[in-house]
């Protein structure tokens, strides 16, 4: 692009009073330039009702093959503020492997046998129920074992993040800085509790009684 | 039984919500999850404040996608069937960058859209407009080393959606994007310049700030248009994950 043309990102930022006279150059060099304000976030919009022919894919919910050694089911029901199951939500799972490593392996959309990518995607069924086949995530540090869940749905203008902390039957409840900062009566919404030998249950309530704790990351944001 | 809201009712509600947001001092660059003019949000927005968390390694990383995941042909939505789809052929091109302008490289972009008549290939789409046997409306691509992407598709039509009487969505393409960290994950919609439906649409208007809304509108770029073949639209995307707070001085004037 000739440098005399207005850069669309720069133009957008100029609208909010942030000038980026050398933005095109900055992008061309692929280097952050010191002292410039950060670029401004592109806003979210709802996933809408009609993602079903695009986002779900074969094998999306199966991070490991069903019934493979060490595999568990992570499942639950998504409900709205009236307690009604949400039939048009889609959930993404992002987690470490069983040893607590965040792997960087392609193949989440076309899975190769034996390759764990850490990412999965599951649409809920007509009863609002979702189900992944995965491994219990290992701890990435000294803390507890948990996975990140991201929820998208019609009616949700911006997705919601939450964490599922895995608690085996008879195991003490985990603690870390997030859990200890959450009111005690809401902490349980972050726990994926073992419900059979090879299954953990994590229900999600969008609103009202038992509302799931959802997360925001101001420190990560620019 | 309450009467079905009219467009005037919804437009009035939108204006009230935006006035409230302006008075509060706009808290977010993203839309309000609690935005009653968009009726489906009423029972689906959390009522508790989101819990502020320092991202850990899981949230600071993001999945890797590669050529095993996406075929290069998937970025052309006009060649997925034996015949040519109906409608206005367009090219959509842009870059995906983070807040420092660093490209989001080799990352998955997924798009989906209605056909030229405003009809989705989706069993629950009841709009009595024709399906196009030569158009599915699903595309995927990996960004290049400079964060660039390019799709060839058909300009989608507006469609009715039942939120209120005579509710029509402005023409849009849905985008799903992964950033350099999972906190930057984004699902959004790209719009086309000059759409007369913008002011009437509670989904578009759920974003409280005009400058932020403008960022969802692509730019017609004649240099991108290909003679005798297709019109070009440019749309760049910034992924920072930012939900919160305008800088103090940015809103000193409200
Ligand atoms: Fe749509």
Explain how this protein is built.
- The complex is a heterodimer of chains A (222) and B (254).
- Chain A is α/β, with parallel strands linked by helices and 222 residues long.
- Chain A has a single domain, classed as Protocatechuate 3,4-Dioxygenase, subunit A, CATH 2.60.130.10.
- Chain A contains 4 helices and 10 strands, in the order H-H-E-E-E-E-E-E-H-H-E-E-E-E.
- In chain A, a hairpin with a 2-residue loop joins strand 7 (191-196) and strand 8.
- Chain A is globular, with a radius of gyration of 20 Å.
- Chain A starts with 7 loop residues before the first helix and ends in a 6-residue tail after the last strand.
- Residues 1-24 of chain A have low confidence and may be disordered.
- Chain B has one domain: Aromatic compound dioxygenase (Protocatechuate 3,4-Dioxygenase, subunit A).
- Chain B has 3 helices and 12 strands.
- In chain B, the strands form 3 sheets. In chain B, strands 2, 5, 10, 11 and 12 form a 5-stranded mixed sheet that branches.
- With 254 residues, chain B is an alpha+beta fold.
- In chain B, a hairpin with an 8-residue loop joins strand 8 and strand 9.
- Chains A and B meet through helix 1, helix 2, strand 5, helix 3 and strand 10 of A and strand 1, helix 2, strand 2, strand 3 and strand 8 of B.
- The structure holds fe (iii) ion (FE).
- Residues 169, 172, 174 of chain B line the site of fe (iii) ion (FE).
- Chain A: InterPro entries: Intradiol_dOase_C, Intradiol_dOase_core, Intradiol_RC_Dioxygenase, Protocat_dOase_a.
- Chain A: Residues 72-140 form the Intradiol ring-cleavage dioxygenases domain.
- Chain A: Belongs to the intradiol ring-cleavage dioxygenase family.
- Chain A: It comes from Naasia aerilata.
- Chain A: Keywords: Dioxygenase, Oxidoreductase.
